[in-house]
Amino acid sequence: MKVLVYGSVNIDRVFSVDHIILPGETLKSTRMSLSAGGKGANQSVALARAGSDVWFAGKTGDDAAWIIKTMEEAGVHTEYLCHTDHPNGQTVIQLDRHKQNSIIVLPGSNGEIEQSEIDAVLPHFEEGDCLVLQNEIPHIGYLIDKASEKNMYIVFNPSPLTDDIPTLPIDKVNLLVVNEIEGASLAGLQPDADFDEILVKLEEKYPSTEIVMTVGSKGAYYRFDKDIVFSSGVKVKAVDTTGAGDTFLGYFLTYKNEGRKIETCLGDACYAAGIAVSRFGAMQSIPLRSEVDG
Ligand code: RIB
After folding, report:
1. Assigned domain for 226 exists
2. Is the CB of 103 under 6 A from ligand 1?
3. Is the peptide bond between 160 and the residue preceding it cis, with omega within 30 degrees of 0?
């Protein structure tokens, strides 16, 4: 089975700060690092390091050549990637003393993906192959519709949350991967809603979709049909939480495609995400399979 990730590549500019900046405040940063990121790119690397056969499609600027090299070294196939002369997508990430982050995303090249490019990539994949999507590129609804027509297995991580998410054909998604904030929003509940209530509402809304909800260091839930599975997370000394969700998704999907029990998939994906949290950066923090299984 082939996995296609259609998504974003970002140049992450990570500023270490005491606290997340307040309105009107000027704040001194103690360190700035350039780091490889983008939810799509991170997930493709997590899938590849976990052992999936993965292709990445999207659009990058020349300034992101070093990120593509990192992805290829991880084993990601990049022959369907398009290029533009315009600047690549970028982020400004504040990383505070508690190792929490806040992220500003400038889409750049990611925002220039065209439907005709999607039409040229999808014929390389067939029924039963996976399509993995996040919400950092345009044409998500089109991608879901087209992949659904081909009976691909569609995985959607609706991150970052935007106002148009409820208008997307999520009922055609096979596996929805959310955190508790995204889950509550899609369920039409307050961000501090009870986890069970979120899962029940999501199941009512999307009865044909498998739901995975991560709840930070507390662990992750899976809910579909009669199956309700929970696995607790691992406690680690946090260095940087950026990319932990992407690591979780790549490992969970790879283990699931291998036919492992859902409980094992959740537990081992939480463990992989814990390793990522204990390291700096997004893509560079994603562990190798030998570190997770070992
Ligand atoms: O999920 C983490 C990623 O989100 C970062 O690498 C950043 O690029 C943002 O897209």
Report:
1. yes
2. yes
3. yes
